[in-house]
Write a structure and sequence with these properties.
Number of domains: 2
CATH architecture of the largest domain: 3-Layer(aba) Sandwich
Radius of gyration: 20 Å
Largest sheet: 7 strands, mixed
Order of helices and strands: EHEHEHEEHEHEHEHEHEE
Low-confidence stretches: 4-8, 211-220
Number of strands: 11
Structural class: alpha/beta
CATH topology of the largest domain: Rossmann fold
């Protein structure tokens, strides 16, 4: 049995203390998938524990991590769970309403495109929402539907004209982008974090620059 085991993998978000303890107790290497952004204290811990082999979820994340990275493995989804539906002409923002997710930028993009925007999520930073997001919602054609999941999320995604992902930070991945692609919906994102790896010019999209100087990419 021991000969058949090559490594032990932690399937959930990597918990440094438990991963380190597992590595100390196990005779096998421990694979730990990173889902968080770079944290110096955790990187120091990983460097002191070479038995923990780190797996990044994007090349962008791997470049920012100072501890050794054993491999880069993008997230995947089951294509059978997604199917295209009739385009109902709205743009979609799906996620937390906070500054780093680019909520205000999404509203501005929809306004410039003269298309209605559906926002699925909830405020994460109340002060930011009240001072910067709410005034834009009241000014433009925006429909808030609250948090969604399951079949409702899938249908909302599949009927969108495009998904907006104008992130304002180096997000390690962005699962909603591949959910959109599997639904036959273009994913439009700022060229930060893992976006250029997922929405790749000449392969999954034809990319261009918006007037806000962030590269806006599409796939479909």
């Amino acid at each position: 049995m021991r000969r058949a085991i090559r490594a032990v993998s932690t399937s959930s978000t990597c918990n440094p203390p438990s991963a380190v303890e597992m590595a100390r107790l196990s005779p096998f290497p421990v694979l730990c998938t990173l889902h968080h952004d770079h944290e110096p204290e955790l990187s120091d811990l990983y460097r002191r524990t070479p038995e923990v082999r780190l797996v990044a979820i994007s090349r962008s994340q791997a470049r920012r991590e100072t501890a050794p990275i054993a491999a880069v493995v993008h997230h995947g989804l089951d294509p059978a769970r997604y199917q295209p539906m009739e385009d109902q002409g709205y743009l979609l923002f799906l996620g937390r309403y906070d500054r780093v997710k680019g909520v205000a930028q999404a509203i501005e993009v929809a306004a410039r495109a003269k298309l209605p925007l559906v926002m699925a999520g909830e405020p994460h930073e109340r002060e930011y929402y009240d001072s910067e997001v709410r005034p834009l919602i009241e000014k433009h054609r925006v429909l808030e539907v609250g948090p969604v999941g399951g079949n409702r999320k899938a249908a909302l995604m599949a009927r969108a004209r495009a998904l907006l992902f104008p992130i304002q930070w180096e997000e390690p991945f962005g699962l909603v982008m591949i959910e959109a692609m599997l639904s036959g919906v273009p994913a439009l994102g700022a060229a930060r974090g893992a976006v250029p790896e997922i929405v790749e010019d000449g392969i999954t999209c034809t990319c261009g620059a918006s007037r806000s100087s962030t590269n806006t990419s599409s796939s479909g």
